[in-house]
Amino acid sequence: MPVNYQPIGVFDSGYGGLTIFRELLKELPEYDYLYLGDNARNPYGNRSFEVVYEYTWQAVSQLFERGCRLVVLACNTASAKALRNIQQKELPAFYPDRRVLGVIRPSVEMIPEMTKTGHVGILGTVGTVLSDSYPLEIAKVSPFSPITVVQEACPMWVPIVENNLIESPGAAYFVQQNLASLFSKDPRIDTIILGCTHYPLLSGLISKYLPVGVHLLDQGPVVAGKLKDYLFRHPEMEEVCSKSGGREYLTTESTRNFDQLANLFLGKSVVSQHIKLG
Ligand code: DGL
């Protein structure tokens, strides 16, 4: 690797972060990137706060050791359960010149202009829903006209994506069931955040069962646009991110599986390397 190789790190528990990654590549193709999927320990969605924090910090540290100065947590569960502590404790103590960004805040900032009814639905993992990160962050961006936020945990959706069962009857069953449950809690919802980076891979199916006129917020393009803006506002970080168009992929599971599925999700072939975390 060249001495000044400092890629942007992109982390997810598995394949879901590729939905963010492909948008970063479209919006900001000139940078070097290092993607890490913790496929061996996925899903994170049902794990405790402590475990998600530990795994996420191990992954971020690994990306730092490999030269990243900036890491994007392309995972809602990790953003909900680990980001704040990493930003407030680990970075000041151990890596004061590095930055870690998440996906929740950028998504939430879009909400006030998207909803007309003021009723918003969140679809996410059990961990993201229980953390209440979305309702708390939405309340902060719209303090004077409160938005009603209703959440639905969809614990089967990540295993469906990770096992490439997107076209299966089981996928249709669970998507339909969770959407019906969300709308039974609040029929006035007009905007839904896909609050898990795996879910855009099911968006064809989701749209099929969505009431007419309800908008879906897909995080990939939003996060990519906000990252561009962040780099513009932080030239000191922008300058140290290397720009030779490199892409590298790391997985904690079998590289053969990763390469096959990543290819499907990214639309291009990928050669990953296996690493161990922890
Ligand atoms: N893709 C992740 C998210 O955005 C997590 C999925 C999981 O590992 O449960 O929440």
SSE layout and pairings?
Blueprint: E1 8-12, H1 18-27, E2 33-37, H2 49-65, E3 70-73, H3 76-81, H4 83-94, E4 99-101, H5 104-108, H6 111-114, E5 119-124, H7 126-131, H8 133-141, E6 148-153, H9 157-162, H10 169-185, E7 191-194, H11 203-208, E8 215-217, H12 219-233, H13 235-240, E9 247-251, H14 255-266, E10 272-274
Parallel strand pairs: 1-2, 1-3, 2-9, 3-4, 5-6, 5-7, 7-8, 9-10
Q: Helices and strands: which structural class?
A: alpha/beta
Helical residues, percent: 40-55%
**Helix and strand pattern:** EHEHEHHEHHEHHEHHEHEHHEHE
The largest β sheet comes out as: 6 strands, parallel
Bound molecules: D-glutamic acid
CATH C-level class of the largest domain is: Alpha Beta
Supply the number of structural domains: 2
Termini gap: 24 Å
According to CATH, the fold-level topology of the largest domain is Rossmann fold
